[in-house]
Predict the 3D structure of the following.
Amino acid sequence: FYDYSSKYTPGATIYHIPARLKDEVLKEAQAITMKVHRELRCRGFSRSELIVDKQGKAWFIELNTIPGLTKTSLLPKAAGAAGISFDELVLTILEETIKDEKTRKRKNGA
């Protein structure tokens, strides 16, 4: 089971990042994830969970708008697999948040 100990003990869980999926399944999963992110009007980043059935169909489970940012969290692991360091990830999140806030203030006349 993916319990507290599995989640927060370094080395207790083996992750496959990126997921070991066929290209078409991976593309479907990414498309579903982006669609849900946009439909829910999320800004910045989120982390989605999907499951793939035996036929290779991706099913959306949930979207987390405030994913963890610890050393064992999945978002930093995914960023790392994409060549983005933890420091770069945090800096990007901060920069995008500041940019969004400035845009929001301009739109509201503040």
In short: The mean pLDDT is 92. DSSP finds four helices and two strands in the chain. The first helix runs from residue 4 to 8.
